[in-house]
Amino acid sequence: MLLVESLLLKALAIPLLARIAWLDFTTQKIANRDVLLLLCLGAGSLLLLSLQSGSWFEMGLSALAGLVLFVALLPFWVLRKIGAGDVKLMAVVPFLIGGRDLAVFSVLLLVLALATAAIVKRPFMLPEGAFRLVVQHLDRKGVVPFGVPIAIAAICTIAFLIYKSVVVASSSGILNQLN
Question: Which of 47, 73, 94, 147 has the fewest Cβ atoms surrounding its Cβ within 10 A?
Fold first, then answer.
């Protein structure tokens, strides 16, 4: 039952991540309140999984990954290459995703960051309405919102984790036993 509650906490993070992506795109701000709420949802989810498994390895791995990401990205913030909200968001994502599934998140983030760079370099590849929105935004702000690919990669990874858990639960017969 703790697994279901853990997945529910992860699912609750999806609308919050979507809000973060939209606000970062429109205002270039990621609120500390939103990042702290994500941290609470992720830590709560990891706590439930740790209680179920009896092992704190996943919690420790996530904390270590979050610390490494924060320390690694802090110099980029000091050099003004990345925003403080992006650094904090990246440091919280391991708690939300879990240390073992960071590889999936990393691949998705790489693909989305490359797509973002391609859109910034050649926005005319987009449909007309999206082109106009992106060009107006880039002209107005002059910076690329990195929180958008972070949030989208996290949403896709969480959706994949939920899907994987449901497939494993249904193939092992656990769902039939619960009914």
Answer: 47
